[in-house]
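Me: I keep going back and forth on a fold encoding question. No explanation is needed for now; the record alone will do.

Assistant:
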Amino acid sequence: MSIRPILYLPDPILRKKTKKVTRFNDQLESLIADMIDTMRMSNGVGLAANQIGVEQKICVIEVPYEMEESTSTELYILINPQIVVKKGQRELEEGCLSIPNYRGKVTRSIEVRVRAQDSLGNEFKIKAVDNLLAQALEHEIDHLNGILYIDHLVSHESLWKIDESNHADSEHLSLFDHQI
Protein backbone atom coordinates (compact mmCIF):
# COMPACT_ATOMS: atom_id res chain seq x y z
CA MET A 1 0.00 0.00 0.00
CA SER A 2 1.21 3.45 -0.84
CA ILE A 3 0.13 7.04 -1.12
CA ARG A 4 -0.32 8.13 -4.74
CA PRO A 5 0.00 11.71 -5.99
CA ILE A 6 -3.33 13.43 -6.63
CA LEU A 7 -3.79 15.14 -9.99
CA TYR A 8 -4.94 18.76 -10.06
CA LEU A 9 -7.03 20.72 -12.50
CA PRO A 10 -6.29 21.35 -15.40
CA ASP A 11 -4.81 17.85 -15.84
CA PRO A 12 -6.70 16.42 -18.86
CA ILE A 13 -7.20 12.99 -17.24
CA LEU A 14 -9.69 14.64 -14.86
CA ARG A 15 -11.93 15.47 -17.85
CA LYS A 16 -11.83 11.99 -19.44
CA LYS A 17 -14.46 9.29 -19.00
CA THR A 18 -12.96 6.30 -17.28
CA LYS A 19 -13.10 2.71 -18.53
CA LYS A 20 -15.10 -0.16 -17.10
CA VAL A 21 -13.20 -2.56 -14.84
CA THR A 22 -13.24 -6.10 -16.24
CA ARG A 23 -10.50 -7.79 -14.20
CA PHE A 24 -11.11 -8.42 -10.51
CA ASN A 25 -7.72 -9.54 -9.20
CA ASP A 26 -4.88 -8.80 -6.77
CA GLN A 27 -3.79 -5.80 -8.84
CA LEU A 28 -7.25 -4.27 -8.38
CA GLU A 29 -7.12 -4.95 -4.63
CA SER A 30 -3.72 -3.24 -4.43
CA LEU A 31 -5.02 -0.19 -6.33
CA ILE A 32 -8.04 0.04 -4.01
CA ALA A 33 -5.76 -0.11 -0.94
CA ASP A 34 -3.61 2.70 -2.40
CA MET A 35 -6.75 4.77 -3.10
CA ILE A 36 -8.00 4.35 0.47
CA ASP A 37 -4.59 5.30 1.90
CA THR A 38 -4.34 8.31 -0.43
CA MET A 39 -7.87 9.49 0.43
CA ARG A 40 -7.25 9.18 4.16
CA MET A 41 -3.83 10.84 4.03
CA SER A 42 -5.40 13.76 2.13
CA ASN A 43 -8.30 14.03 4.60
CA GLY A 44 -10.76 13.41 1.77
CA VAL A 45 -14.26 11.99 1.91
CA GLY A 46 -13.83 10.26 -1.44
CA LEU A 47 -11.40 9.60 -4.25
CA ALA A 48 -11.92 8.53 -7.86
CA ALA A 49 -9.26 6.50 -9.68
CA ASN A 50 -8.69 9.16 -12.34
CA GLN A 51 -7.69 11.59 -9.57
CA ILE A 52 -4.54 9.49 -9.21
CA GLY A 53 -4.08 9.00 -12.95
CA VAL A 54 -5.84 5.62 -13.31
CA GLU A 55 -8.51 5.69 -16.02
CA GLN A 56 -10.77 3.02 -14.50
CA LYS A 57 -14.27 3.21 -13.00
CA ILE A 58 -13.27 2.88 -9.35
CA CYS A 59 -13.98 5.16 -6.42
CA VAL A 60 -13.75 4.97 -2.66
CA ILE A 61 -15.83 6.94 -0.17
CA GLU A 62 -15.55 7.16 3.60
CA VAL A 63 -18.20 9.03 5.57
CA PRO A 64 -19.02 9.25 9.28
CA TYR A 65 -21.38 6.54 10.46
CA GLU A 66 -24.87 8.05 10.75
CA MET A 67 -25.65 7.33 14.36
CA GLU A 68 -25.58 9.78 17.22
CA GLU A 69 -22.36 9.87 19.23
CA SER A 70 -20.58 7.55 16.81
CA THR A 71 -16.95 8.19 15.97
CA SER A 72 -16.67 5.40 13.40
CA THR A 73 -16.87 5.67 9.63
CA GLU A 74 -18.36 3.68 6.78
CA LEU A 75 -16.08 2.80 3.87
CA TYR A 76 -17.54 2.21 0.41
CA ILE A 77 -15.58 0.69 -2.47
CA LEU A 78 -17.40 1.11 -5.75
CA ILE A 79 -16.33 -0.57 -8.97
CA ASN A 80 -18.16 0.42 -12.18
CA PRO A 81 -20.69 2.55 -10.26
CA GLN A 82 -23.74 3.96 -12.02
CA ILE A 83 -26.35 6.33 -10.68
CA VAL A 84 -29.71 4.72 -11.42
CA VAL A 85 -32.01 7.19 -9.61
CA LYS A 86 -31.65 10.86 -8.65
CA LYS A 87 -34.47 12.75 -6.95
CA GLY A 88 -34.87 16.32 -5.76
CA GLN A 89 -32.36 19.13 -5.57
CA ARG A 90 -30.47 20.86 -2.80
CA GLU A 91 -27.70 23.44 -2.61
CA LEU A 92 -24.54 22.44 -0.77
CA GLU A 93 -21.00 23.63 -0.21
CA GLU A 94 -18.43 21.38 -1.84
CA GLY A 95 -14.70 21.08 -2.42
CA CYS A 96 -12.39 18.65 -4.17
CA LEU A 97 -8.92 17.20 -3.63
CA SER A 98 -8.14 17.95 -7.30
CA ILE A 99 -9.04 21.65 -6.88
CA PRO A 100 -7.33 22.43 -3.58
CA ASN A 101 -8.02 25.59 -1.58
CA TYR A 102 -11.36 26.32 -3.24
CA ARG A 103 -14.96 25.67 -2.25
CA GLY A 104 -18.18 26.29 -4.10
CA LYS A 105 -21.93 26.19 -3.76
CA VAL A 106 -23.34 23.44 -5.98
CA THR A 107 -26.64 21.81 -6.80
CA ARG A 108 -26.86 18.12 -5.87
CA SER A 109 -29.67 15.59 -5.60
CA ILE A 110 -31.50 14.86 -2.35
CA GLU A 111 -31.78 11.13 -3.04
CA VAL A 112 -29.24 9.05 -4.96
CA ARG A 113 -29.41 5.35 -5.79
CA VAL A 114 -26.33 3.65 -7.18
CA ARG A 115 -25.57 0.23 -8.63
CA ALA A 116 -21.94 -0.91 -8.41
CA GLN A 117 -19.69 -3.92 -7.96
CA ASP A 118 -17.43 -4.81 -5.07
CA SER A 119 -13.77 -5.78 -5.47
CA LEU A 120 -14.79 -9.38 -6.26
CA GLY A 121 -17.21 -8.35 -9.00
CA ASN A 122 -20.40 -8.89 -6.99
CA GLU A 123 -23.14 -6.37 -7.75
CA PHE A 124 -24.73 -4.32 -4.96
CA LYS A 125 -26.93 -1.23 -4.57
CA ILE A 126 -26.73 1.82 -2.32
CA LYS A 127 -29.45 4.31 -1.48
CA ALA A 128 -28.51 7.60 0.18
CA VAL A 129 -30.95 10.34 1.12
CA ASP A 130 -30.15 13.94 2.11
CA ASN A 131 -26.73 13.19 3.59
CA LEU A 132 -23.01 13.40 2.93
CA LEU A 133 -23.00 9.96 1.29
CA ALA A 134 -25.53 11.09 -1.35
CA GLN A 135 -23.35 14.11 -2.11
CA ALA A 136 -20.14 12.04 -2.22
CA LEU A 137 -21.68 9.41 -4.50
CA GLU A 138 -22.63 12.06 -7.05
CA HIS A 139 -19.29 13.85 -6.71
CA GLU A 140 -17.13 10.72 -7.18
CA ILE A 141 -19.24 9.19 -9.96
CA ASP A 142 -19.11 12.55 -11.74
CA HIS A 143 -15.30 12.33 -11.54
CA LEU A 144 -15.41 8.96 -13.28
CA ASN A 145 -17.38 10.62 -16.09
CA GLY A 146 -14.98 13.55 -16.46
CA ILE A 147 -17.23 15.99 -14.60
CA LEU A 148 -15.99 18.20 -11.76
CA TYR A 149 -17.96 19.91 -9.02
CA ILE A 150 -17.28 23.29 -10.61
CA ASP A 151 -19.54 22.13 -13.46
CA HIS A 152 -22.45 22.12 -10.96
CA LEU A 153 -21.86 25.57 -9.45
CA VAL A 154 -24.98 27.56 -8.67
CA SER A 155 -23.22 30.51 -10.36
CA HIS A 156 -19.67 31.45 -11.37
CA GLU A 157 -19.56 33.75 -8.35
CA SER A 158 -20.32 30.86 -5.99
CA LEU A 159 -16.73 29.58 -6.08
CA TRP A 160 -14.34 31.03 -3.54
CA LYS A 161 -10.80 30.60 -2.38
CA ILE A 162 -10.16 29.50 1.18
CA ASP A 163 -7.08 30.64 3.02
CA GLU A 164 -4.49 28.36 4.59
CA SER A 165 -6.46 28.04 7.84
CA ASN A 166 -9.54 26.83 5.89
CA HIS A 167 -11.59 29.97 6.49
CA ALA A 168 -13.57 31.42 3.61
CA ASP A 169 -11.81 34.20 1.78
CA SER A 170 -13.85 36.93 0.15
CA GLU A 171 -11.76 36.74 -3.02
CA HIS A 172 -13.57 34.76 -5.75
CA LEU A 173 -11.66 32.56 -8.16
CA SER A 174 -11.64 33.53 -11.81
CA LEU A 175 -11.33 29.97 -13.16
CA PHE A 176 -13.94 30.86 -15.74
CA ASP A 177 -11.59 33.38 -17.35
CA HIS A 178 -9.21 30.55 -18.26
CA GLN A 179 -9.37 27.41 -20.36
CA ILE A 180 -10.06 24.47 -18.08
Remarks:
- The longest helix spans residues 26-41.
- The beta strands are 46-48, 58-64, 73-87, 90-96, 99-108, 111-117, 123-129, 159-162, 168-172.
